């Protein structure tokens, strides 16, 4: 069966047909990868996979990251330490069997507080609630293109400190203490505008809004500017909403998108398995690359 696809929105996402991820070939993967680079988010429905299948396909993208260490500990799939359980299911004794519970997960980019953030992430749906739990994605290249030129010029010379204190559910990460002063919280500074390492495309890179801070600006000015940036980054024209079905696999570029999750009823179960591809790039701004290109070669 030939591979085919349909764009989901004009700026983000494509649904791909004609690939069984359990038996995907190297030529098929090359075609899928090209589509992923173009559309940033790919959806493949009706996948009948085992955890071995899911992990094997994930590893075709690159080296896998183990699950992040949450306050409740690492929540890996039994026998698969590189696969992460996202679930509100609990054991008979009330122990959480997965991470993130049933609440809203706010707009974020996975683990952007790292020096080399994850390159890509993937979710596979196992159990779904009758309502809620939708996942939203936002295109950061499209958001940047929608901005006025003077705003782009200003932010292209600035960075954001990406807070490492809280996860996307608002929980304090293991080993840290709550800190709501963005100027003092732990984190890594990345350029607001980066060059996508493989395509050369310019894109926003924002992470989480909570505790974000633009170094060098007074806190109030940083907050005002970040609110303006986020208004473009989460506008309806650059987002898509994914309504999950059983057997869906969604793969996204962690350097060119943000995502969030809707809450769902706590008496309903939602379980997905997630994989994450280890970061392979140090992020750089367009002006940094231009400066490097202007440097004369050593004699």
Automatic annotation (TrEMBL):
It holds the Pfam family TauD. InterPro entries: AtsK-like, TauD-like_sf, TauD/TfdA-like. Keywords: Dioxygenase, Iron, Metal-binding, Oxidoreductase. One of its GO terms (biological process) is sulfur compound metabolic process. Residues 5-275 form the TauD/TfdA-like domain. The keyword ATP-binding does not apply. GO terms for molecular function: metal ion binding; taurine dioxygenase activity. One of its GO terms (cellular component) is cytoplasm. Belongs to the TfdA dioxygenase family. PANTHER family: ALPHA-KETOGLUTARATE-DEPENDENT SULFONATE DIOXYGENASE. This is TauD/TfdA family dioxygenase.
